Task: structure prediction
Amino acid sequence: MRTLVTGGAGFIGSHLCDRLIERGDDVICLDNFFTGSKQNVKHLFNHPAFELIRHDITESILLEVDQIYHFACPASPVHYQYNPVKTTKTSVMGTINMLGMAKRVHARMLLASTSEVYGDPNVHPQTEDYWGHVNPIGIRSCYDEGKRVAETLMMDYYRQSQVDIKIIRIFNTYGPRMAVNDGRVVTNFIVQALRNEDITIFGDGSQTRSFQYIDDLLSGVIKMMHTKNFIGPVNIGNPNEFTILELAETIIKLTASKSRIIHLPLPQDDPTQRQPDISLAKEKLGWNPTILLEEGLKKTIRYFEDKLSNGA
Ligand code: NAD
Ligand code: UDP
Result:
C-alpha cells in the first residue's frame, strides 16, 4: 500500500505516519512546514518505507499512491488567522489538487474535517446531520468555511466522478508533538503551568470543549479509511465535555504549578460549547475513545517537560 499523508510533519500527521509505517505501508509525507517541522518525523528519515517531500498543496503535484490522508491545514486559531487568505486557499485549492490526484490514480482519499463546521452550535451534542451555525464573514471563517468547502468538494468529486472518499470531523485533539507555540488551549495551559506563568483563560472559562487524546483519534482515522460502504461524514472525538476553567484547574493540579489564572477577552466567534455525538462512529466503525483526560494530559505534560528542559 503506498500512502500519502498531507500535513504529515504536523502534530496529527506525524503520528499518523508512524502508525502507517508500523502497519507496513510505504508512506509519502508531504508538508510545507508552515506549522509542522522536520523534527516531528526525523526518527523516520532512515526508514526505507518513508519519504518526505517539501511541497505546498496549493500547487499541483503528480504522485502515484493508493490512499491519501489529507491533513494539511493549520489548525490552531493563532496560525490559521496569521494568513487567513492562505488558510482558505489551502483548504480549497489544496483539496482540489488532492482530489484531482485521487481521481487520476483512483486512490481512496480521507479528509480531516473538523467540528468547526458546526460553528457555535445550537444543537448539543453535535450530530453529523446538523448543518452548523458558522459566521461566514468572521475571523474564524477562513478555517470553518474552508473546511466546509473542502467537504463540499469531496462530496462533489464523489457524486460527479465517483472518487472513493471518506470524511471525518475531528473534535479538539491534543498530545505529544504539538508545538510549544501552537497557541491552542491544551498546549498554552501546559506550557504556562510548567513555566509557572499566568494561565490565560479567554472569557470567564465557562465555554466547553471535549478533548480527545491523539491515540484515540488515530485508531478512528485508520478504521474509517479501511471501512467499506461508508463515506461519512463521521464525528471522531471524545464526548467527555469540560469547561475551559476545569481544564485549567486540572492542568494546574497535575503539574503542581504555582501559576495563577487570569482572564483575557474572549476572541470573536469563540464557540460556547462543543461535544460530539459519536453514535455513528460506534455503529459504523465499532470505535470508541478510551483515554481519559487526566491520563492523556499526564502523557502530554511529560512530553512538554522534556521539551522545555531541552531548551524549547
Ligand atoms: P498542525 O498545524 O500541527 O498540522 C498541520 C500540518 O499541515 C503542518 O505540518 C503544516 O505545516 C501543514 N500545512 C499547512 N498548510 C500547508 C500547505 N499549504 N501545504 C502543505 N502543508 C501544509 O495541526 P494538526 O492539529 O496536526 O491538524 C492536522 C489536520 O487535522 C488539519 O487539517 C486540521 O484542520 C485537522 N483537525 C485537527 C484538530 C485538532 O484538534 N488537532 C481538530 C479538527 C481538525
Ligand atoms: N483558550 C483559552 N486560553 C488560551 C487558548 C484558548 O481560554 O490560551 C480558549 C479559547 O478561547 C476556546 C478554547 O480555549 O474557548 C479552545 O481553544 P483552542 O484554540 O484550543 O481551540 P478551538 O477554539 O478551535 O476549539
The CA atoms of residues 68 and 276 lie 25 Å apart. The two ends are 36 Å apart (CA to CA). The longest helix spans residues 84-105.
